[in-house]
Write a structure and sequence with these properties.
Helix content is 71%, strand content 0%. By secondary structure, the chain is mainly alpha-helical. Helix 1 packs across helix 3 (55-72). The model has no long low-confidence stretch (mean pLDDT 93). This is Anti-sigma factor NepR domain-containing protein.
């Protein structure tokens, strides 16, 4: 694995962790955030211009993230 791949993976892990914690915190202060985010997923899509485009895949990941915050928060 190249250094760039390792850095990209590490950045993704760190970003996901910080985002989860931020969402947990805000949901604790302002209940309803998770519902609001979940309701927005129909507008989420994959901007890829080629055959890797997968809108449903992006939405599945977002739903799993919301489910994880609900479970852990």
């Amino acid at each position: 694995m190249t250094d760039l791949n390792v850095q990209t993976r590490q950045r993704e892990i760190a970003t996901e962790h910080l985002l989860f914690k931020l969402i947990e915190y805000v949901e604790g202060k302002h209940p309803g955030l998770l519902d609001y985010l979940e309701d927005s997923l129909d507008h989420l899509g994959d901007p890829a211009p080629d055959t890797t485009k997968d809108d449903d895949g992006v939405r599945r990941i977002a739903r799993r993230m919301i489910t994880g915050v609900r479970r852990d928060g």
